[in-house]
Amino acid sequence: MKIIVAGAGIVGVSCAIWLQRAGHDVTIIDRAGPASGTSHGNAGVLAAGAIVPVTTPGLLARAPGMLLNPDAPLFLRWSYLPKLLPYLVKYLGYATDKHVDHYATAMTTLLHDSLDQHRALAAGTAAEKFIGAEDYCFGYATKAALEADAYSWTKRKTAGFAFEVLDRADYAQYDPIYGDAFEVIVRCKNHGRISDPGAYVKALADHFVTQGGILQIAQINDIETRDGVITALKTADGDVTADHIVFALGPWSKEIAHKLGVKVPFESERGYHIELINPSHMPKSPMMVASGKFVITPMDGRIRAAGVVEFGGLENGPSRAPFELLKRQVADILPDVTYDSIVEWMGHRPAPADSLPLIGANDAQGRSYSAFGHQHVGLTGGPKTGRIIADMISERKPNIDLAPFNPMKHAAK
Description:
CATH superfamily: FAD/NAD(P)-binding domain
Domain FAD dependent oxidoreductase: 2-392
Strand content: 25-35%
Keywords: Oxidoreductase
Number of domains: 1
Shape: globular
Oligomer: single chain
Protein name: D-amino-acid dehydrogenase
CATH topology: FAD/NAD(P)-binding domain
Structural class: alpha/beta
GO molecular function, one term: oxidoreductase activity
Number of strands: 21
GO cellular component, one term: cytoplasm
């Protein structure tokens, strides 16, 4: 069949490769090319245990204090608040124990084998060299801070994820770079790392093209529908049709999804990173700085500190406060690391109100499919999402309960 994949991030490229391997004629259409957005700027962690959403019980009570604290990892463009409010009400409504358990169960099935899924996707390609099997660590300044985070660790343990708790001295035997920054470190097993996310996705896209796939750089302006079913994709180069169209446009998915009747409550959750170029010392594994909700990751030729959360929409430029927070905290945590320069970046995470990605058909005929909304775990869940979409289009039943991810649960009533 002729398939169009709209979007060339990790999710879109994964969909395209697995569809191509299933024997289909696949074209990727993207406005800027592979890994031009969040697939370039993420923390590079294959976070298999990222099964606890931001919306945990008590978030509503904590959020105002975080917004007013310059050292807290939550930011808001206040001018954007009126537009954000309807979404925010729905988003905070999911901060319940029941929804956390629902989310954890669903996301465990999607993420638990992330490292193996990446290895299968990249097998035989130049992208293989970017995949590592390092543990994912969480650094806490005090034991009390870890105890305050017990809710999340209990949920991960219940879901079957393995981790060990180390004191400062024990962790220093593995990696002394953090000195006295953390009193206690939680080390999560069976995770992984991508040493250069942007180069990794580009290598996968290059492989897709060498295998006969088409990569078309074009702005997607609109869609044409009849009775709620897509009939054409309207691009700057003209109308395009196919047997099936997969939408993997990340944070730019909302408008098209709504036109298809998938009325998902949706926002851009803005993320930031800084990179220390050519550092004098390199950490051995990704480290989540628990107090700042950002990850310090060793990458090819640089250390990346990526994370924090800002609500400010797709149109506004970067804010200075998140960059300054990252710089302050990295300087405190890695005081002995010198480097040549700092690079700054801001990007957009696709954030449905219930934090669950949309994976599946948008209509009963299966003319179009959604593959977006992964929030913080697009890199982690991208390859498996691509495999699932390819199976569905090829009429093979995926071995996973897809009900929590079904786009049609958001269908207009």
